[in-house]
Amino acid sequence: MQEIIQHFIAExxxxxxxxYIAVFTGIISVVYSRIENVWVYPTGxxxxxxxxxxxxxxxLIGEASVNFYYTVMSIYGWWLWTRKDRKEQPLVKxxxxxxxxxxxxxxxxxxxxxxxxxxxxxxxxxxxxxxxWADAFASATAYTGMWLMAKKKVESWWWWIATNxxxxxxxxxxxxxxxxxxxxxxxxxxxxxxxxxxxxGRATANAATFAMENT
Length: 215
Known about the structure:
The protein is an all-alpha fold. The chain is 79% helix and 0% strand.
């Protein structure tokens, strides 16, 4: 245990300023997403751009692709979340997925997992530090979570929880210990985010039911 603690402290001391900035902007971004605030995207962009660089530096190719995807989806989500109807209300509201949408999510995840796994298996000879099965799982769940978050689906948080659980050991063994701790924080925030969006999703469903009954 003492050796583990000493190793942890030694790795924390190696943490760069860029990693600190990425971690703190990432936490801020998740806090904004929990309260459904559009600032989730500009703060998230700082986080993802830094992590693209760090992921290449530490041979986390799958995570580099995820953060590039985050960057693109953040721009899309930013646009989507700012759209309003004639009453100046957001067009996209927090809702739960139907059974059909759940099936789409699973297919989406499996497709990306397969593509990333086989790509990393091939690229492993160029990036010896890659862990194809773990990197592919963390990446594919993150791809799915980001896609669903842009659509304000409650289930996005389940995929974020899976991403965070996979990323904690993945980043630790890669030497990005502070980032590993960051994913522990994100895991806790994701659980609270899930509970909050479940509440908001029920409120949206109740409002829709009330509107139908009074038309």
